[in-house]
Design brief:
CATH class of the largest domain: Alpha Beta
Distance between the termini: 56 Å
Order of helices and strands: HHHHEEHEHHEHEEEHEHEHEHEEH
CATH architecture of the largest domain: 3-Layer(aba) Sandwich
Radius of gyration: 23 Å
Number of strands: 12
Strand content: 15-25%
Structural class: alpha/beta
Largest sheet: 8 strands, mixed
Shape: elongated
Helix content: 40-55%
Length: 309
């Protein structure tokens, strides 16, 4: 099969396309079946029916994780477009009755709840729009920006990184200063402020490279012509701060955390001199009509909060 067009998808059952997209995104029959609330045998049957309809295998059998064939890769964008169009058609009918329906797939930073009333927004939205199914994923910033850009997330509360938000609408919400965090008995704990050069020889406890704060800090050291040693990399902020409190290393972190009393008593925040580092939190969603009705409505809750600050 040379190509699969959008016209081809119009003859297929929506549930088969939905199952196909779920498997393509989850790359696991177990996870895709759980996402679609069906048994694995039902998912397999649905995929085989779709493959029979298009006349080609869509997945390479026997691979883990599940991998698309060339034909499956060709079908995926058209399948997503068809599902989005079907959801928009359903929403058009619901709009006539003043009801929002469908789904809201939202990404959020692990620390969004510390600095922003994210849970309150979600609760208000869910209660006001019971016809919308909501899923929340907490992922690295760069990954979430990519997922919003290609339609796998409807919107995300994320720290926008330069050159990674092209084609997206960005609603600024918060800018938090970044401070050095050290243990109470660290030699720099008594300093009023430090320069990046003073930190070049320190052991750092850092989040992974796909996190926005890591990009900000790496770029700052690179711009200053400095290198640093990352002695421990952890993908959870609470553990980063606990390791710093234990004396494993230092870190540069945004100031919006609500620290556990034990950790707060064991660390000290020190200002930076010679450079101003901030961690932004923005709401990002596709521009214009590319944004789903649910994402656009959720953005109204967020912008109302931002306007009232």
């Amino acid at each position: 099969m040379d190509s699969i067009s959008q016209r081809d998808t119009q003859r297929m059952e929506l549930r088969h396309l939905r199952h196909f997209v779920a498997l393509a995104e989850e790359r696991s029959f177990t996870k895709a079946a759980a996402r679609e609330l069906i048994v694995q045998s039902g998912l397999s049957t649905s995929i085989r029916a779709l493959e029979k309809e298009v006349g080609a295998l869509l997945f390479v059998r026997g691979t883990r994780p599940v991998r698309l064939t060339a034909e499956g890769t060709a079908l995926l964008p058209a399948a997503r477009h068809t599902l989005d169009a079907a959801e928009a058609a359903q929403q058009a009918v619901q709009d006539a009755h003043g009801v929002l329906a469908g789904r809201l797939r939202i990404g959020a930073l692990q620390t969004s709840g510390h600095s922003l009333p994210f849970s309150t927004w979600l609760a208000e939205f869910a209660l006001a729009h019971p016809g919308v199914d909501i899923s929340v994923q907490q992922l690295p910033a760069l990954q979430m920006l990519d997922l919003v850009a290609d339609g796998r997330l409807d919107c995300a509360l994320v720290s926008v990184v330069e050159d990674h938000a092209r084609g997206l609408e960005v609603i600024p919400l918060l800018a938090e200063p970044v401070r050095l965090v050290v243990s109470r008995d660290h030699p720099l704990a008594s300093a009023e402020s430090v320069t990046l050069r003073e930190l070049a020889g320190e052991r750092f406890v850092d989040p992974p490279a796909q996190w926005a704060i890591r990009v900000v800090v790496d770029d700052a050291f690179r711009a200053a012509g400095l290198t640093r040693r990352i002695a421990c990399e952890v993908n959870e902020w609470t553990m980063v701060l606990e390791l710093v409190a234990a004396g494993v290393g230092v870190t540069l972190a945004p100031t919006g955390f609500v620290l556990a009393p034990r950790v707060a008593a064991a660390v000290r925040l020190v200002g930076l001199t010679g450079v101003e580092l901030v961690r932004r939190i923005d709401l990002v969603l596709p521009q214009g009509h590319a944004a789903s009705p649910a994402a656009r409505r959720f953005s109204e809750y967020v912008t109302a909060w931002a306007a009232g600050r």
